Amino acid sequence: MLQHFKFTPMFENTQLPGWNISFYYKNERITGEYHPDGTIAWGSRQPEDEEAVKKMVHELMLYHVYD
């Protein structure tokens, strides 16, 4: 489970898509960039179970940004 999930726009012009994300997963802080096509560029170390983490991030972004 992701904890303390935060996202902020990459650009001042909020019309341009792209978000900086950060959260804690298994007591480790993870950062990255969430791109409009759903790809994630990890800023910190890539999570061990990346696919499961990606799925959770996608669900949160759909809920908070695209809903």
> What coarse outline follows from CA principal-axis ratios?
globular
Number of helices: 1
Oligomer type: single chain
Give the tally of β-strands: 4
- The share of residues in extended strands comes to 35-45%
End-to-end Cα distance: 21 Å
Structural class: alpha+beta
Mean pLDDT: 90
Question: H/E order of the elements?
Answer: EEEEH
Helix content: 25-40%
User: Which residue ranges are poorly predicted, with pLDDT under 50 across at least 5 consecutive positions?
Assistant: none
- Describe the sheet with the most strands: 4 strands, antiparallel
Q: Evaluate the radius of gyration.
A: 11 Å
- Strand arrangement across the biggest beta sheet: 1-2-3-4
